[in-house]
Amino acid sequence: MKLRLPAWRLLACLLLNVLLSSYSAAAPASMQQIMAQGELRVGMSMATPWVMKAKDASLIGSEPDIARRLAADMGLTVKLVELPWPQLVPALKQGRIDIIITGMAITPKLALDVNFSHSYGESGIGMASHMEKTKNIKTMADLQRASVKIASVAGSSAEELSKRLFKNATLKTFYSITEAEQALVKGDVDVLIGPNAEMHFLSLRHPKIIDQPVATPLLNTYEAFAVRKGDYDFINFLNAWIISRKADAWLDSTRYYWFKTLRWQGLVAP
Predict the structure, then answer these.
(1) Residues near 176 by Cβ (< 8 Å), separated by ≥ 6?
(2) Phi/psi at 167 (nearest 5 deg)?
(3) I need a surface site. Which of 21, 43, 111, 161 has the fewest CB within 10 A?
(4) Three-state secondary structure readout of 215-226
(5) Among 208, 257, 216, 224, which residue's Cα sits nearest to residue 49?
């Protein structure tokens, strides 16, 4: 005897199968799937000394070193995916990358979109200024003028801080730290708010044009890995990895090399 489903029920079943298959195809990989695929796709964004281009066009810096060591400890190959900052979280959500390792600061706003690991490093948001354009600015209060142009990278912690500290200034956002730095060097903006270490190295690269008026960070930040929501197995592994690599001093020595020395300068593309 053959059982016949009503037409509406048959149609509903077909639609459900299509939706489930579409969801499975688009669903981001879990840690188990990442292990099965044999490759860790790591998203990162350019910023000295976190991520830089080497003379051979490869990516070097503290974050590529961390990504390579993490993948090796997982028994995986690594694929470093360089993206502008605003594209990192969307790429993670869409499954185009598996993890963000780029000195991303833990913030409540970002935590709504990603799951953060424990912090593996501490840094901060700092300031760089165009010396000629800011020669008459003596105090932080002087930056609170509409005539002062303050730059930051869109979607970054530096942009959030700029909005809080300099409400009366003219705030300009850029797609990448490279674009923002070029605008500062050319004098298109007066001040750049960004990663404190990056501001320091920017002033060293352009000592006659750029100054770092405040050496200490305007805001201390804690950096962490970011993965997709719901993948708690991956978070658990990353937290264990951070504890282990801090215990054997690998993380601290790696960050010391990139943040406290200049021995790597000869490796960087001009």
Answers:
(1) 45, 46, 84, 85, 153
(2) -65, -30
(3) 21
(4) CCCCEEEEEEEE
(5) 257
Structure tokens at 43: 């998203």
Q: Express each pLDDT in 78-112 by its tens digit.
A: 999 999 999 999 999 999 999 999 999 999 999 99
Q: Residue 195 phi/psi, 5° resolution?
A: -55, 130
Residue whose pair of structure tokens reads 């979607």 in the numeric block: 155
Q: Are 43 and 64 in contact (CB under 8 A)?
A: no
Assigned token pair, 255: 């960050």
Give the chain's radius of gyration (CA, Å): 22
CA distances from 91 to 22, 53, 126, 235, 263 (A): 18, 21, 27, 18, 33
């352009």: which residue's tokens?
A: 206
- Tell me the two tokens of residue 68: 């390579």
Global pTM? 0.83
